Amino acid sequence: MHNSPLVSICIPTYNGQQFIAEAISSALAQTYKNLEIIVSDDASKDDTLSIIKNYTSKTQTPIHIFNHKPNGIGANWNNCLLKANGKYIKFLFQDDVLSPTCVEEMVEVLETNPHIGLVTSKRDFIVDKAHASKEVETWIETCGNLQRTLDLKVENNISIIDKSLLKSAEFLNPPRNKVGEPSIVMFRKDLVDKIGLFDENLKQILDCEYWYRILKYKDIAVIHKNLASFRLHANQATNVNNQNAITDYHAYNKILYSQYLKLLHPEVQKRLLRKYNLFYKVYYWVVDKFKAK
To answer: From CA 25, how far away is CA 98, in angstroms rounded?
Structure first.
């Protein structure tokens, strides 16, 4: 690719020694070469950093390691964004793996389509044997194809999601994240100036909330090809969050009301207005009481 723009592969880490070597190796094995690797580490207590440092003398790809004071996963993700120099941001979590052509194929889409703000892809799953269960199988059936409920046109192996998704009756139906985990997306760094950083108050859905924030301004492209592998294991953040009674979905309704209301399906608008708008609370209370007579 001519005039290849710099891509920042951002790896937020914390006690990731079990899988970090595989993640770093997949980043360095990219067919696309104008890369930097940004590591933001939340005070790991294991060998995560020493494993990463071993790669610095084995590659010409810059690996920048930043020590970050722990303040939640969103703060660590945001530190990556703040330290990144690339035109494009490619997250890679410490337990996930990129396919060799992932960055190259995503950059191609973004460089040739200025209306696209973010590109995602399909993904494979790596399921740890100790974590295999009927529940995991069911999750893969439900979330294996994140766009399964959307009627997307496929052209040249790519589909486009525009902000009409927000108006769709399918928007809040499972799977809630219809774009993908951070390891399978790439987006334009300059969008950060427009939409801000990840919401650090969220723990579980801060990624899809961010993707939908992008969708308010730019379209999203879906490459119908598995370009990354998402690992499922007992210690990943999603499972830890599920055990800790995360309240993101209550906060998400308030975010939708305050930032997305006019873009949503009329029935969703009505539900949110009844919940959060005093005028509409009273109005619908009167209407419901009248109907009950």
So the answer is: 9
